[in-house]
Amino acid sequence: MLDLSKNPLFDLNSRTLSVDERVALSYARARLVLRSYNLSISDVQSFTPKFWAMHLDPILPLDFGCFTILAAHLNLTVGTIARYLPQQPDLIPLVKSLLNLDTVGVFLLSERGHGLDAFNIETTATKHKNGFILHTPREEATKFMPATTPAFGIPKVAVVMARLIVDGEDRGSRFFLVPICTAKEMYPGVTSTRLPRRSGTSPLDFSMTSFNHVFLPASALLGGSLDAPTDARSAWWDEVWRIPYGSMAVAAPLMQGLKHVAYIGGQYSLRRHVRVHGPTPVPIMTFPTQQLAVLYAVAAGTILDVWYRSINLWTTASSTAWPWW
Question: Which cellular component appears as one GO term in the record (predicted)?
């Protein structure tokens, strides 16, 4: 396991920084983590132990903004694109840029009016003679809420789910590769409205993103097929196949955080002394009520860690067998 705790980026007290300084720090930390683990396309595609080891790095609970960037970037964006590399090898340079975090990948699926019912999204990609026209038909179809602003000096590209319209016919939802912003500004036709910060969280530039008749080349359609699926719902689940794996990844820093809590609580309980019946102070760890809480946290953290690592075997075996339920 890498020791990133000695890096100056993780030695900063982020609580003394402004919101934007904290966001910039999270992006810098995410780049450091990703470059330190040096993941390959195969690592992301096949869910290798190295892939999961990055998610389990004990440094990540210190900055959930950093982890949020990495989780969506790797699991959803890179993972989705990587699936189509055999058919679209021209995307390999982009994926390498993403794996180095020279470019941030964004996953735009749900909309302001379609969260749990994302199957019913309204964003359209209409077939044009030379490509597609990506459009947000109304405010409720605005993509919600991945971070898409250019405010922190990193280019961003998105995997955008939209309804494929060919000759006036809705042929189901597809993913399209869409440039969002350069290191300084949005691309024409793409609008990003930054959302207010949620209190008590690691801040990021979460946004609402819309498209105004954005032209996309034919190569933007991931997979390239214009055919209507025989079963639209099964086809939709096949498109979003990375989401269950991404959901598992989210648990990693929470389990590591539980270990942090157990260690801090245990050390404090040994150091903190109080007088009880006699003149000599005793550590509060001698109290059964304190022992129970600390030992429960240690046990839970250990068991969850073993359970989580067993996912390595399951995901490696099942990553090519979809659907898995």
Answer: peroxisome
Query: Using omega within 30 degrees of 0 as the cis cutoff, is the peptide bond preceding 186 cis?
Result: no
Backbone angles phi, psi at 104, to 5 degrees: -95, 130
Query: What is the rounded distance in angstroms from the CA atom of residue 91 to the CA atom of residue 79?
Result: 13
With a cut of 80, say whether residue 171 has pLDDT above it.
Answer: yes
- Reported as a pLDDT band with limits 50, 70 and 90, residue 161 is very high
**Rounded alpha-carbon distances, angstroms, from residue 145 to 133, 180, 205, 210, 259:** 22, 14, 9, 11, 30
Note the pLDDT of residue 316.
Answer: 60
β-strands 143-147, 206-211: how paired?
antiparallel
Amino acid letter for position 175: F
Rounded CA separation 146/105 (Å): 10
The domain containing residue 156 runs over which residues? 104-240
Q: Are 199 and 153 in contact (CB under 8 A)?
A: no
Rounded to whole angstroms, how far apart are CA atoms 57 and 74?
15
Distance, CA of 275 to CA of 160 (rounded, Å): 62
Overall domain count for the chain: 3
In-domain check, residue 287: yes
Whether residue 206 lies inside any domain: the answer is yes
83 and 114 assigned to the same domain: no
Task: Name the band, by pLDDT with cuts 50, 70 and 90, for residue 290.
Answer: very high
Mean pLDDT of 160-183: 97
Closest CA to 110 of 124, 121, 99: 121
Q: How far apart are CA 67 and CA 200, in angstroms?
A: 16
| Last residue in a domain, options 211, 240, 269 | 240
CATH for 129: 2.40.110.10
One domain for residues 92 and 138: no
Helix (H) or strand (E) holding 314, with range, is helix 288-318
Q: Smallest Cα–Cα separation from 181: which of 150, 145, 135, 215?
A: 150
Contact 293, 265 (CB under 8 A): yes
Is pTM beyond 0.85 here?
yes
